[in-house]
Amino acid sequence: ILFSGHGVYDERGNYYLATYETEPDKLRRTALPHTEIGHLVTRDLAHCRRLLFVDACHSADAVSDNLIS
Fold first, then answer.
1. Residue 22 and residue 64: Cα distance in Å, rounded?
2. What secondary structure does DSSP assign to the chain, as a single string?
3. pLDDT tens column, 15-35
4. In the chain, % of residues over pLDDT 70
5. Lowest-confidence region among 11-15, 20-24, 56-60
6. In what order do the strands lie in the sheet with 6-9?
7. Neighbours of 39 (CB within 10 A)
8. C-beta of residue 1 within 8 angstroms of C-beta of residue 53
9. Which pLDDT belongs to residue 48?
10. Are 22 and 30 in contact, with CB atoms under 8 Å apart?
11. Which residues, including other chains, have CB under 8 Å from residue 20's CB and lie 6 or more apart?
């Protein structure tokens, strides 16, 4: 999985992956929250090998510590 874009925070400090079309004042509707990345890697793709590349500002915040091994 490769994501190349922007990494941004909302006013509560939640991390989102953002694209060109993301609206900064509407992050919940127009960007991908970091929690969804965790669900994708641990739940949806748990049965297969996977490699995640995130090329974005603050990209370490895209995944939680339990996903890095």
1. 23
2. -EEESEEEE-TT--EEEE-TT--GGGHHHHSEEHHHHHHIIIIITTTS----EEESTTGGGGS-GGG--
3. 999 999 999 999 999 999 988
4. 90
5. 56-60
6. 6-9, 15-18, 32-33
7. 11
8. yes
9. 86
10. yes
11. 5
CA angle 27, 22, 11 (to 5 degrees): 30
> For residues 38 and 57, what is the distance between their CA atoms, to the nearest angstrom?
18
Amino acid at the residue 29: R
* Tokens coding 17: 């992956």
Q: Round to whole Å and give the CA distance between 63 and 41.
A: 9
Count Cβ atoms below 10 Å from residue 50 Cβ, excluding itself: 13
pTM over 0.90: no
